[in-house]
């Protein structure tokens, strides 16, 4: 049954001869379309030459992966820098602040001794003193000054006690 319908449709199609209406219009339309495609704008041509490689799927995906890698590398670098800064801040704040203050006091004391005692006489002197020796001298001086201040306080206290007992 299907073979009969198939053969019948086949015979009808063999008898039917397709004819074109307006052959000239169709030919002119085809020529016009092909001519429009050939006369491409120079700007479009340059763009196609410069960026035509981006039409390749593998290239686009590769560039996307590379750009993501660069972004992640930048983020990693920023996080690493922030962690280093935080650790440095922790060292500064968490370190013995008293020792930092004492070190700075020693530097101030050294500078005040050097520059307050007559710049000309000390700077023209031919004696060179090592920094460590000068720090030791300053430490001894400041310790002696503290002991002297403590002694003065004790003397005042003992004098005040002696006056109150009279």
What brief labels describe this structure?
single chain, 166 residues, mainly alpha, 7 helices, 0% strand
Write the layout of secondary structure elements.
Blueprint lengths: L1 H14 L7 H16 L3 H10 L5 H38 L2 H20 L2 H5 L7 H35 L1
Helix pairs in contact: 5-7
Please characterize this protein's 3D structure.
The termini are far apart. This protein has helices at 2-15, 23-38, 42-51, 57-94, 97-116, 119-123, 131-165. With 166 residues, the protein is mainly alpha-helical. It has seven helices and no strands. The chain folds into two domains: 22-95, no CATH class; 97-166. The protein is 83% helix and 0% strand. Helix 5 crosses helix 7 (131-165).
Assembly context of the chains: single chain
Mean pLDDT: 78
Distance between the termini: 147 Å
Question: What does the largest sheet look like?
Answer: none
Overall 3D form? rod-shaped
Give a short overview:
The chain is 83% helix and 0% strand. The protein is built from 7 helices and no strands.
């Amino acid at each position: 049954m299907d073979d009969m319908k198939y053969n019948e449709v086949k015979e009808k199609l063999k008898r039917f001869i397709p004819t074109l209406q307006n052959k000239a219009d169709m030919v002119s339309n085809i020529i016009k379309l092909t001519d429009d495609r050939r006369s491409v704008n120079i700007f479009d041509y340059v763009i196609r030459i410069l960026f035509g490689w981006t039409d390749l799927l593998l290239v686009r995906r590769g560039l996307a992966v590379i750009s993501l890698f660069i972004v992640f590398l930048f983020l990693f670098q920023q996080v690493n820098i922030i962690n280093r800064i935080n650790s440095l801040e922790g060292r500064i704040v968490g370190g013995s602040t008293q020792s930092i203050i004492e070190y700075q006091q020693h530097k101030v004391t050294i500078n005040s001794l050097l520059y307050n005692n007559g710049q000309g006489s000390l700077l023209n002197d031919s004696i060179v003193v090592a920094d460590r020796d000068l720090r030791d001298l300053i430490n001894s001086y400041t310790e002696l000054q503290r002991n002297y201040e403590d002694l003065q306080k004790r003397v005042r206290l003992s004098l005040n006690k002696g006056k109150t007992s009279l």
